[in-house]
């Protein structure tokens, strides 16, 4: 045939080769670029724009803002940092800005909290086979003190239970300590970084001056340019712990949700902190505060095998869930 001459084939193959070079690299399920605006020298994104991009409904009811889709339900409060996703509380890095009835969320919060919750493809993909468990405190550092328990004893007991569940589910587990010894925070982070573990989970119990305070909290590393949830100090520096901001938040959310589901404890939310271990580890990391030893009623429950088993199951189950998400993530 006329079209099969060698000159045509040469041009045809040249065109195929060139198109391979010139075509943009295909990106599947990429997050759409959303325009930001500047208020108070900070970048914000209109919640209405986010809702339009993802096909969510945005509406206000009883002073709260809801952004909902088939698989998503966010709620926010104008001018507040507290928010929720599928009923699990979290603290934003910056308050939702109410600009005469038009609501804006900071670009940092959109990128580090909303994006990973909206679509797992906005997270970094990595394998999850080995878990580094870090029972808080130990030795001369007893941690929080209740009437009956030292925090260091309960963290070890709980970590051992988590380890058992994780091993049963096929994970390798590395522990920062297996007995009652002192290890510095720096050494814990260094051990995690040496261990080739895929995720880091630090286990703690809480204490507050107000003895009425109770409930569960899960922390992940504060993003650069934001203040931690319990502070107003903004730090623009990026640390090793910021390598996986989006994965950190997804893991923290899944862990908080799962612990609440198994224990029915009070939800105090997913929060940000620049705790040394979270700052220095190079893998996705969270720190769980599994109840307040300073609250006498809480302490009685926390000390029981029933409660520790519920929390341990919650932690282990969330890691199984995170593995499913992280191993199919898109970045
Ligand atoms: Zn602690």
General description of the model:
The protein is α+β, with helices and mostly antiparallel strands and 331 residues long. The chain has 2 domains: 37-118, Copper amine oxidase-like, N-terminal domain (Copper Amine Oxidase, Chain A, domain 1, 2-Layer Sandwich); 130-326, Aminopeptidase. 36% of the residues lie in helices and 24% in strands. The protein contains 9 helices and 17 strands. It has helices spanning 6-22, 47-54, 107-118, 151-168, 185-194, 245-263, 276-280, 296-302, 305-326, and strands spanning 37-39, 42-46, 57-61, 64-68, 73-76, 82-85, 88-91, 97-99, 102-106, 130-135, 172-175, 199-206, 216-221, 226-227, 234-235, 267-273, 285-292. A 6-stranded mixed sheet has the order 11-10-12-17-13-16. A 5-stranded antiparallel sheet has the order 3-4-5-6-7. A hairpin with a 6-residue loop joins strand 14 and strand 15. The longest helix has 22 residues, at 305-326. It is globular and about 55 Å long. The termini are far apart. It binds zinc ion (ZN). Zinc ion (ZN) binds at residues 136-137, 143, 151, 204. The site of zinc ion has 5 residues, from loops.
Kindly list the characteristics that best describe this protein:
alpha+beta; Aminopeptidase; 6-stranded mixed sheet; 2 domains; 9 helices; 331 residues; binds zinc ion; 17 strands
């Amino acid at each position: 045939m006329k079209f099969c001459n060698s000159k045509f084939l040469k041009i045809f193959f040249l065109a195929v080769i060139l198109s391979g070079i010139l075509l943009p690299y295909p990106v599947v399920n990429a997050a759409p670029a959303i325009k930001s605006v500047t208020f108070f020298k900070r970048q914000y994104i209109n919640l209405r724009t986010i809702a339009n991009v993802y096909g969510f409904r945005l509406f206000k009811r009883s002073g709260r803002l809801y952004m909902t889709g088939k698989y998503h339900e966010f709620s926010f409060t104008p001018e507040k940092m507290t928010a929720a996703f599928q009923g699990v509380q979290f603290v934003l890095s910056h308050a939702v800005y109410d600009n005469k009835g038009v609501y804006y969320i900071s670009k940092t919060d959109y990128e580090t909290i909303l994006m990973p919750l909206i679509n797992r493809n906005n997270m970094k993909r990595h394998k999850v086979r080995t878990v580094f468990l870090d029972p808080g405190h130990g030795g001369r550092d007893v941690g929080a003190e209740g009437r009956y328990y030292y925090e260091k004893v309960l963290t070890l007991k709980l970590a051992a239970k988590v380890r058992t569940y994780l091993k049963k589910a096929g994970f390798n587990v590395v522990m920062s300590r297996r007995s009652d010894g002192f290890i510095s925070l720096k050494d814990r982070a260094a051990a995690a970084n040496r261990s080739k573990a895929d995720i880091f989970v630090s286990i703690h119990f809480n204490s507050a001056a107000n003895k009425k305070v109770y409930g569960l909290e899960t922390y992940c590393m504060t993003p650069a340019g934001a203040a931690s949830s319990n502070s107003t100090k903004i730090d623009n520096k990026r640390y090793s712990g910021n390598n996986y901001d989006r994965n950190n938040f997804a893991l923290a959310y899944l862990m908080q949700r799962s612990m609440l589901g198994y224990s029915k404890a009070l939800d105090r939310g997913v929060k940000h902190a620049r705790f040394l271990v979270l700052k220095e580890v190079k893998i996705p990391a969270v720190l769980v505060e599994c109840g307040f030893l300073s609250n006498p009623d809480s302490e009685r429950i926390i000390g029981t095998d029933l409660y520790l088993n519920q929390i341990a199951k919650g932690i282990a189950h969330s890691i199984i869930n995170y593995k499913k998400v992280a191993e199919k993530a898109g970045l």
